[in-house]
Amino acid sequence: MNKLLKVFVDICLFRAGPQQLPASAFLLGLALAVHWLIDVVLELFSAPLVESLLMALLDTLLPLAVVYGLLLLYRRPARLEQTATALLGSEVLLDLPLLPLSAWVVFGAADPTLPSLLSLLLLVWAVAVAAHILHHALNVNRAIAAAYAVVYTVLSYALTVLAVHGG
């Protein structure tokens, strides 16, 4: 397990790609479950339980759909397990610091500027990591991978807003 965590950390530090992960349905399922759980907790800072459960489900399944669509487009569907696991697992690692930052904003920050800036920094890092993963998985140049990562992130936030506010 330590070796696996190191691979996820290395992916987040741009030292490894999704190809360093095993192609494992179990590991993908575990990444999906942990991603969903962390998202539920994060959503609970700003939404009621039922909304949090649904938004977290949407936010967890979207990476799977985007990765699968891109891999089909580039004719590399065999890379789904590794790519989706890398994307979900890296998001989990980068979402963990958001837990105390969100609590800081909701429960204690007289001035939410610092935790908000740190959260934005984590978002930018997450987009860069997603681009890194897509660069390796799709065999595209970094600019195209970055464009996909930005579109994926904007799409994720747009769908969350639509799901919460109904349009």
Walk me through what this model shows.
With 167 residues, the chain is mainly alpha-helical. It has one domain. The chain is built from seven helices and no strands. The radius of gyration is 16 Å and the shape is globular. The protein starts with a helix and ends with a helix. 29% of the residues are buried. The mean pLDDT is 93.
The main β sheet shows up as: none
Question: Stretches where pLDDT falls below 50 for ≥5 residues?
Answer: none
- Strand/helix succession: HHHHHHH
State the helical fraction: over 70%
Question: Which structural category do the helix and sheet elements fall into?
Answer: mainly alpha
Number of strands: 0
Strand residues, percent: under 5%
Distance between the termini: 42 Å
Average per-residue pLDDT, rounded, comes to 93
Shape: globular
* Tally of helical runs: 7
Taking Cα atoms only, what radius of gyration do you get, to the nearest Å?
Answer: 16 Å
Helix/strand layout:
Elements: H1 2-12, H2 25-44, H3 49-73, H4 80-95, H5 98-107, H6 113-138, H7 142-165
